[in-house]
Amino acid sequence: MDRLSEMEAFMSVVDQGGFTDAAKKLGISKSAVSKHVSALEARLGARLLNRTTRRVSPTEIGLAYYDRAAVVLSGASEADEMVNAMQTAPRGALRVSVPVSFGISQVSRIVGSFLGEYPDVSVNMVLDDRFVELVAEGFDVAIRIGKLEDSSLRARKLTETRMVMVASPAYLAAKGRPKTIESLSDHVLLHYSHLATGNFWRLKTRSGEERHVRVGGRLTANNGESLLRAAESGLGIALIPSFILGQSLTEGRVEVIDARAELDTLGVYAVYPPGRFMQPKLRAFIDFLAENLKGRGPDHWPA
After folding, report:
1. 208: Cβ–Cβ under 8 A, 6 or more apart, which residues?
2. Residue (of 120, 91, 125) closest to 283 by Cα position
3. 240-260 burial, b for 16+ CB within 10 Å, e for fewer?
4. Separation between Cα atoms, residue 136 and residue 267, nearest integer Å
5. Which of 15, 53, 70, 278 has the most beta carbons within 10 angstroms of its beta carbon?
6. Alpha carbon of residue 110 to chain centroid
7. How many CB atoms lie within 10 A of CB 63?
């Protein structure tokens, strides 16, 4: 006799408080439920239920077995759902949170190709540089750049980007090129308001020592693209991720500043809520992102 059927019958008797209600719940005869439970007890060599004319209740061993059987049946159900999901074509709506500049310069073109390949999926892409609350705000996935905070969310690393200091040739001609981290304090530093370190740039020397430089520029913005445009206009020095630079660097609108600093390399992640299995539409989207971002390392981003 099927062990899972025996477990299911036993658990239903416990849940429903008797064989009659268990039979109704399972959609089989009362005698079939009784045979399943009797076969289970015979196979285990233990009495799992106390039976009286008025009620049925689990024995001490029955209670312990119930807890383990619940885990087994849950796992079996999850396995069935996983197989069904993996055989189902991706379809439905995806709500995606993406940082503004990364969304415009990188993800938008990938989403266009994704929609062409998966006609039954629609994407609502929300561009926002803040860290959204995925579950509370109804997002299926978010793209996040930088160090991930400890959380119950799942994450897949897609690629990396590097932080870069840049300024316009006109600014450097007028103010000079900073030679050391300490000399940055004499310059106008453009402030990204979503920095985890607040009003400081956290930089490292070539020997690995950490230095904090206060950002004292007159411009604060919550978007890296805006800071790049400000740097191009000669307003100061910007510290921005390499994926934003594109043609601005190759066309000479800004120049990279060394200042003898080792700048951070940041991971780019797809972050999504935990679950028993990943929906086909979400799996397809994250796989597509990973494939299309492959090979775009810290210093290799197309314009």
Report:
1. 262
2. 91
3. bbbbbbeebbeeebbeebebe
4. 24
5. 278
6. 18
7. 12
Residue 189 is part of a domain; what is its CATH number?
3.40.190.10
User: The CATH number of the domain where 61 resides is what?
Assistant: 1.10.10.10
Concatenating the DSSP letter of every residue in 70-97 gives HHHHHHHHHHHHHHHHHTSPP-EEEEEE
88-141: pLDDT as tens digits: 789 899 999 999 999 998 999 999 999 999 999 999 999 998 888 888 898 999
- How does DSSP classify residue 129? S
Integer Cα distance of 106 and 127 in angstroms? 12
What letter does residue 34 receive in the DSSP assignment? H
pLDDT tens digits, one per residue of 264-284: 888 999 999 887 668 889 999
To the nearest 10 degrees (0 to 180), the angle between helices 30-44 and 19-26 is 110
Please indicate, yes or no, whether residues 252 and 171 belong to a single structural domain of this protein. Answer: yes
Same domain as 74, residue 16: yes
Q: Which residues pair with 202 in a beta bridge?
A: 212
- Whether 182 and 35 map to the same domain: the answer is no
Q: Reduce the DSSP state of residue 149 to 3 states and report it.
A: coil
Q: How far apart are CA 245 and CA 224, in angstroms?
A: 10
Asked whether the beta carbons of 209 and 221 are under 8 A apart, the reply is no
**At 101, which helix (H) or strand (E)?**
helix 100-102
Residues 116, 157, 298, 301, Cα dihedral to 10°: 0
Residue 126 lies in a domain: yes
Among all chains, which residue has been given the structure tokens 């086909």?
280
